[in-house]
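Hello Y.,

Per our agreement to keep a running log of every chain we model this quarter, I'm adding this entry. I've kept the format consistent with earlier entries: sequence first, then predicted structure.
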Amino acid sequence: MDIILIKLVIAHLIGDFFLQPGSWVKDKETKKLKSGKLYLHVLVHVALIFLVFLDFGIWKVALSIGIIHLGIDALKSVFQTKKNARILFFADQVLHFGSMIWIWHIFYNGYLDSSYLNETKTWILISGVLFLTMPTSIMMKVIIAKWLPESNDESPKSLQNAGKYIGILERVLIFVFILTNHFEAVGFLLGAKSIFRFGDLKEAHDLKLTEYVLIGTLLSFGIAIVVSLLTAGITGNKL
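Predicted structure for the entry above:
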């Protein structure tokens, strides 16, 4: 990746996540376009570009970044509500990174190589990751449904769908660990999960629940390991 684009990304990360206090964010959400913090935030981004590049000759790039950043943040502040705040946060970041790539392309003829999208290996890796998310969750639910313990209204409630997303994350991590030849990390992940689960299961005093969790964990890890090894074997090399 070009050093110029990397510097633009670094300037953005510092400005948006290190030099933007929570009070500024709340002020923008409350006062919207009338917020002085909105414009101060944009000036910080412009100053950071000069600081990162140490070159005042880059003023056109800095000004372009500042104007586009102001437009994106202004739109976000106008349309943001409590319901869409999470979605707009990610949309905001996508637009910021997209604008940096666009400016890099215009001023420096930058080009992102996308030839890897036409490689068989890429699509095999994508298929492996996708299979370990929702398809595996559904398969496991069907397999171990008959062993699901009866619910106890007095037992502590967990976050909605937390178990499903924890399983997805652990399988994706195993996929990455194995394809990068870090098998020891798989053992560490299993050990860490066992430690966190041990206290809850010990307090529950429920043998069926313990066995159910153990079956689910081993099944999840087993599927992830098999899919990862198959993917590594088919692609012929590691990530």
